[in-house]
Amino acid sequence: MTIKPMRKDFILVAEDDADDRYLMQTAFDEKGYKDKVEFVENGIELINYLESIANTEYPGFILLDLNMPKKDGRETLKEIKQHPVFKKIPVVVFTTTKNDAEIQRCYELGANTYIVKPTSFESLLTVIQEVRNYWFSVASIPAS
């Protein structure tokens, strides 16, 4: 099983809070990015979405909230990183949870990065820019 190309202009966001989704979309728009940003509201929707785009192009990275209904981010992260194809997609945990045990647990489950959500819109703009630039311009990811 090989992974299809990861698009350097496609971000998948798992976020259950409508206000946070709006702020994130606004941040991408305000920065002038033309990326395809797709939102899902929980881990079940995230896995279903990835399965629905199988054999096409995958997102360049996933922004994953931890505290979501139905299937939380921890369960979803574990499932993604155990999947033979999805495990190669970088997963950025993007959450309000800030404690060392949680951070450690997420890295043990396979998170590529752990970021605590900023508290201001200006900080969100900076974080979105830095994360996007890192995964799309700096990081090298294997094609298969």
TrEMBL record:
<protein>
    <submittedName>
        <fullName>Response regulator</fullName>
    </submittedName>
</protein>
<feature type="modified residue" description="4-aspartylphosphate">
    <location>
        <position position="65"/>
    </location>
</feature>
<dbReference type="InterPro" id="IPR052893">
    <property type="entry name" value="TCS_response_regulator"/>
</dbReference>
<keyword id="KW-0597">Phosphoprotein</keyword>
<feature type="domain" description="Response regulatory">
    <location>
        <begin position="10"/>
        <end position="132"/>
    </location>
</feature>
<dbReference type="InterPro" id="IPR011006">
    <property type="entry name" value="CheY-like_superfamily"/>
</dbReference>
<dbReference type="Pfam" id="PF00072">
    <property type="entry name" value="Response_reg"/>
</dbReference>
<dbReference type="InterPro" id="IPR001789">
    <property type="entry name" value="Sig_transdc_resp-reg_receiver"/>
</dbReference>
